What does this fold into?
Amino acid sequence: MTKKPEVSPTQPVARDITVLAPAKVNLFLHIIGRRDDGYHLLESLLAFADFGDCITVRKAPEIGFSVTGPFAHICRKAGCDGEKNIVVKAARMLQKLTGVTSGAEIILEKNIPLSAGLGGGSSDAAAALKALQILWQVEPEEEALFALALDLGADVPACLIGEPSFVTGIGDHITPLNRFDDLACVLINPLKPLSTQAVFRTFARTERPFSDSLALTPDLLEDLPTLLKGSHNDLQGPALGICDEVGDILGALQGAEGAYLVRMSGSGATCIGLFETSEKADDGARALAKAHPEWWVKACGLSANTQFLVHA
It folds into this structure.
């Protein structure tokens, strides 16, 4: 089930509504098989940062879309600053589902690097769905909304829920965790896009054996340290073969004081370091940013209580 917006879709709203599209972090990612249609079967633990893109919507007669923020120029270069953007697709699909005839001006503040393994596009789409439900004062049936989200992308349903979750299948089977203690994290990206498709193709070419499915129990799902200790990211090796900087970042994080778990997130190239305290994460981020000004470095928190509604 989705995490309900802090403002009901049926309540009157202010002119602008802003919703956080948090960075999605894969704390582990196991590939346990492959379907006949080519999609890989995954087991992954997702968490959401207290940092991300922002979606702002306001009333308008038609669907309009623009991009701001530090990575807006990359969106423009990639040609995803208009109708091709998943946010616009999400808006039009929600219009069709609910029968809404009015439009919306949608502004995407792009703070997450593109093709970074942080689920930026999926999170943007989910945030747009949340914001537009409030703006248009609609509340579609949950099953229909999730079907729409899955049509947009395999990660969008989990981003719509927005809670730390164990995800299986192609990302469409989602089990929110009953317990998730806050984590202090540092995210680092080399500012070089890494294609998800290329990483999966490399994984397939190497003919690496699939990981065994985790023998999950309710107790293990509540024991995050043990769960993380026995996990890994199957895409890290293939990514290292494509992007040398992934190895450099992993090495730098492993040498940071207070870092106790280091690995790549998703299909990369962003790598994550979990730190003993938020103070050590902040110190580590400052030191790593100073030593490597060519990298994007962000200290953040991973929490079960991410606040999505920024302004309404």
Notes: Residues 16-177+306-311 form a domain with the Ribosomal Protein S5; domain 2 fold (CATH 3.30.230.10).
